[in-house]
Amino acid sequence: MVLINTIMLLASMLSPANSIYDFNFTSIEGKKIEMSSFKGKYVLIVNTASACGFTKQYKDLQALHQQYGKDLVIIGFPANNFGEQEKGSNAEIQNFCEKNYGVTFLLSEKVEVKGSEITPLFQYLTTQENPDFTGDINWNFEKFLINKEGKLVHRYRSKVNPLDKSITDNIK
């Protein structure tokens, strides 16, 4: 797994991505998902964890998904990078999210969102030219809003609730 992530990271560095549509990920069920399949929709990318003080944001992410699902794709990327707050297997994470928060939006398999094994998508998201977007992820439940053209347009820190006006105003 480490070798595969390293190869993917090196490959992404050799041919820089122009948008998130140049990436794919594996769903929590093990299915390959092409980000290009979301062209024409807003995408909210969130690094998540099941044992975090912000875990209750799953509820509001689900509400956002239900309210704007026609125009917005939400993807949760479980990660164990902060305080070991996502120790479970993919199956355990999926069960937790469905049972406790009724999550029906997309979840990826567990990923790395910082460090030497960072997933290429998160490498791309955290190395944008705009200084408002660049830099390591600081904690769970940071959010990246992608516009309908596949470009990162906003980055929201963990404390910003998914239903905050600063998010909803940008997806209308």
From TrEMBL:
Listed PANTHER family: GLUTATHIONE PEROXIDASE, PHOSPHOLIPID HYDROPEROXIDE GLUTATHIONE PEROXIDASE
Highest taxon listed in the record's lineage: Bacteria
GO biological process, one term: response to oxidative stress
Family indicated by similarity: Belongs to the glutathione peroxidase family.
Keyword set, alphabetical order: Oxidoreductase, Peroxidase
UniProt source species: Sphingobacterium psychroaquaticum
GO molecular function, one term: peroxidase activity
InterPro entries the UniProt entry points to: Glutathione_peroxidase (IPR000889), GPX_AS (IPR029759), Thioredoxin-like_sf (IPR036249)
Protein name: Glutathione peroxidase
Any Pfam family: GSHPx
